[in-house]
Amino acid sequence: MSETIVAIATAIVPEQGSVGIVRLSGSESVSIAQKLFHTPGHQTWESHRILYGFIRHPETQQTIDEALLMLMLAPRSYTREDVIEFHCHGGIIAVQQVLQLCIETGARLAQPGEFTLRAFLNGRLDLTQAESIADLVGARSPQAAQTALAGLQGKLASPIRQLRATCLDILAEVEARIDFEDDLPPLDEAEIQAQLHHVLAEVTRILETADRGELLRTGLKVAIVGRPNVGKSSLLNAWSRSDRAIVTDLPGTTRDVVESQLVVGGIPIQVLDTAGIRETEDQVEKIGVERSRLAAQSADLVLFTIDAEAGFTEFDREIYNQVSDRPLILVINKIDLSEVKGELPEALQTVKTAASINQGIDALETAILNTVQTGKIQAANLDLAINQRQAAALTKSKIALEQVRNTIANQLPLDFWTIDLRSAIQALGEILGEDVTESVLDRIFSRFCIGK
Question: Which of 6, 301, 345, 431 is least surrounded, with the fewest CB atoms within 10 Å of its CB?
Fold first, then answer.
């Protein structure tokens, strides 16, 4: 019998949030709730009912909060255990007092992700669905949320389960020929090869979503870099439709890195407006320039910005040489004031903007998505996007399956086929949570918040 666990299941902020939820899961959940929750009238404690009442201290009978109680009995609950939720008033004090009462009455404070871990261990979710819940909670864009929701609905688990079943069928056929060779017809190698080809193609297709999945989860860091007064801050303000950065005609206005969060084509983007890079004796500006260089080196993409009227100057070339090793888009700003003067570096993707009048922002976003696609990270909508753990297991299965094909091509005995088939089956099982170690589970569920 597992311990009864408890945690605050909602974010708690002083003077914010109308409702705060305290969640219990385990065999003692109902008895703990009955000691703390007092219902006026004749309300029935039945599963999937909401009760109204007061949470009171079991000894002093002091009222802690007026609340609602939601009762969900096993197995029809998130964890497939008895689950109780106290829906208290929001803020900090009420939910923390209720949490403390639950602990004093016999519950244990839950570990991060322990509710979802119990849902996995009790067979309500497979491991891909559990990971999708974490992705859904942490989604930073609507597309990331939709991809996570697809995973929760089994759009990754379903094909992986089918691929594993195909491998198990092949293994069964091969082992049957090993054990009962004289009683069965010869193995149809052409059919086995066709099945392996299909499985490998599907594994490869799913593996191709790994970069896209990482991009949806972590986003893209983009640094706006250039000389002072070329319009970097104006570009940030026009792009983010806000006044995040101070804009003046004086060079060197931006003294530090200014950050804004955007979503482009479903991809979360962290935009960094950096201080203009130049030699300066101003100690504060000098620190800002150094931070600009560091931001450019850590960025996934650099928007190298120049002034159309000044053209590509020697100072621009010096800065360009410092960032040319990064993925880069040349942004020619202030085209509303002048035609582009001078020669530009060759083979650079170029966008023309007039940030002060919000011109060219759509073209800039298109160029960013083109750069993403050039890196073979597809910007189209996907039904699924795997994470690093899943990609590692799929890679292991792909290597094993390719080895099976080599074994067949080299006409090695059937016993050799089974070794790599079992490796592929085990790797695919790891994705779903079968044949997975406790340390892997600990690492996965430690990413969750305590109440999930």
Answer: 345
CA 167 to CA 424: how far, in whole Å? 8
Q: How far apart are the first and last CA of the chain?
A: 21
- pLDDT < 50 positions in the chain: 244-256, 277-286, 376-381
Residue count (the chain): 452
User: Residue 10: CB partners within 8 Å, gap ≥ 6?
Assistant: 17, 19, 20, 21, 90, 95, 451
| Sheet of 328-333, strands arranged across | 258-264, 267-273, 220-226, 301-307, 328-333, 349-352
The separation between CA 118 and the C-alpha centre of its own chain, rounded to angstroms, equals 21
Whether the Cβ atoms of residue 276 and residue 236 lie closer than 8 Å to each other: no
The number of beta carbons lying within 10 Å of the beta carbon of residue 160 is 26
- Amino acid of residue 195: Q
Q: Among 173, 204, 197, which residue's Cα sits nearest to residue 409? A: 197
Q: 444, 2 in Cβ contact below 8 A?
A: no
CB count within 10 Å of CB 74 equals 16
Name the β-bridge partners of 436: none
Give per-residue burial for 165-196: e unless 16+ CB within 10 Å, then b. Answer: ebbbebbebbeebeeeeeeeeebeeeebeebb
What is residue 374's predicted lDDT score, i.e. its pLDDT? 61
Please tell me the predicted confidence (pLDDT) of residue 256.
45
* Sign (positive or negative) of CA dihedral 251, 253, 256, 259: negative
CA atoms within 13 A on the CB side of 184: 13
- With tokens 């570096």, the residue in question is 345
Q: Which two tokens stand for residue 257?
A: 């890195």
CA separation for the pair 282, 252 (Å, rounded)? 10
CA 134 – CA 125 distance, rounded (Å): 13
pLDDT digits (tens, 9 = 90+) for 294-329: 766 777 888 888 888 888 888 888 888 888 888 889
Amino acid present at 352: K
Residue 250 is predicted with a pLDDT of: 43
- What's at 350, amino acid-wise? T
> Tens digit of pLDDT for each residue in 1-27?
579 999 999 887 776 778 999 999 999
Contact 332, 235 (CB under 8 A): no
